[in-house]
Amino acid sequence: MIPWQERNLEDRLTIAPCSNADGTHKLPLFVIGKSKKPREFKNINLSSLPVYYHNQKSAWMDCNLFKSWFIDEFVPSVKKDLNQKKLNVRAVLLFDKAPSHPSEEELVKGDIKAILLPPNVTSLIQPMDQRVIEWLKRRYSRKYINSILEKSEEGFNIFESMKSSK
Questions:
Q1: Stretch 116-145: mean pLDDT, rounded?
Q2: Of 6, 11, 47, 95, which residue has the fewest beta carbons closer than 10 angstroms?
Q3: How many CB atoms lie within 10 A of CB 70?
Q4: What is the DSSP track for the chain?
Q5: pLDDT of 161 higher than 80
């Protein structure tokens, strides 16, 4: 799992995708925002969204959020997928050494565990670095630009369009 931060002067959002190596089991995106209840979702129950959303002041990943995601989202999702495929419940999460990641010892639940990748190999063997994050960023940017263009066609100036498209 490799986090991606959307950086803006006002907004920040961390998005962390995760899937198995062949892409047949994709977990909901782990999204970290600043707001406990973002304005954009004021009438929406956050637990009904197709993402695992958490908030914190900086909107950055930290050890506690990562560990919570591992125990509350990763392990149950992997167990369910393996049970449906009638496979033994054994899995490994590969992750890189980042200050926001807990130690391997903290990320163990039965036969599901995490293994730290050696330095300088993440971009070579980590599935999310094999164009998944790039594709996600491009798709997000395309949708964002399209929403700005739609607003500008409705008569908003470009700055109003950008503000209302956030």
A1: 73
A2: 47
A3: 24
A4: ---EEEE-SS-EEEEE--B-TTSSSBPPEEEEES-SS-GGGTTS-GGGSSEEEEE-TT----HHHHHHHIIIIIHHHHHHHHHHTT--S-EEEEE---TTS--GGGSEETTEEEEEPPTT-HHHH-GGGTTHHHHHHHHHHHHHHHHHHHHHHTT--HHHHHHHT-
A5: no
